[in-house]
Amino acid sequence: MNTTSKPNPSRTVLVTGATGFIGSALVAQLLARGDSVVALSRNATKARRKLGARVQIVESLAQIAPSAVIDAVVNLAGEPLAGGPWSAARKQRFVDSRVQTTAQLIDLFERLASPPAVLVNGSAVGYYGERGDDTLDERDGPRDEFLSTLCQQWEAEARRADMLGVRVCLLRTGLVLGAGGGLLAPLLLSSRLGLGAVFADGRQWQPWIHIDDEIGLILHLIDHPTLSGPFNATSPEPVTQRELMDILATVLKRPRWLRVPASLLKLSGEMSVLFMVSQRVLPTFALESGYVFRYPALATALRQIIGR
């Protein structure tokens, strides 16, 4: 795990989306370094089983008293985008699960006697939309596309905390690679069976990040009080989707010969953008802030995850 200085001996950190792939890894690292964690979960029993007895579980932000001391908030809540067709109702749930939770956090900040010092708010590289081979960083703007609009709404709600004196960091995350969860799991399964496939022509850029760097960057943003604004949570060495599958096949020592044509991917409807969008995203602001990536290269990251 990338280590960062922590000026305070202990903080209390509120985490939403704490039982998810990223959230549970973050909670474990916060506890390991001596912080206290409050986790928001709709299912306290499930959260207790997953996160352990040391974490305070709340099923509603209303359970947090105005006198409570919360030093930092990491907001990762949001319904997963994969898993089925994007009906109008499901797309609205994508928006509501992100924007409404963030709005409830702002309400919490307003009623706390002392608001948190920092909000690290989830977002995604989807903010940039389809960009082909353009090289992108945090200074580039959004597009008029659903995922981009979703991220814009989410970030705009988070920025309301600025008016309360809360430092806001926006975490635009790519594909998070790690053991035991995330989108790597199905890719590993298919590749181990020799069924790893290139999607469409495979030339679309796929920004990615190792789970340790995702967590390391979040801690870096919490710990450095001069940092605010957008930060791309992506490796400084992006790859195309074809390169991703070829490197994975090489690490696993398995063949990679399949290709899923664009026409077949489009049968999944609007959700096909998850497989076909191209975003060559660089973490310029993270690097300029002094964050050092532990796993900048994909082959090294995959070998660490797979144990090769």
UniProtKB/TrEMBL annotation:
Gene3D superfamilies: NAD(P)-binding Rossmann-like Domain
Assigned keywords, A-Z: Membrane, Transmembrane, Transmembrane helix
SUPFAM superfamilies documented for this protein: NAD(P)-binding Rossmann-fold domains
Domain NAD-dependent epimerase/dehydratase: 13-226
Domain of life from the UniProt record: Bacteria
Pfam families for this protein: DUF1731, Epimerase
Listed InterPro entries: DUF1731, Epimerase_deHydtase, NAD(P)-bd_dom_sf, SDR39U1
Keyword Transmembrane: yes
Residues that span the membrane, as ranges: 12-32, 169-189
Record family assignment: Belongs to the NAD(P)-dependent epimerase/dehydratase family. SDR39U1 subfamily.
Designated name of the protein: TIGR01777 family protein
Organism field: Hydrocarboniphaga daqingensis
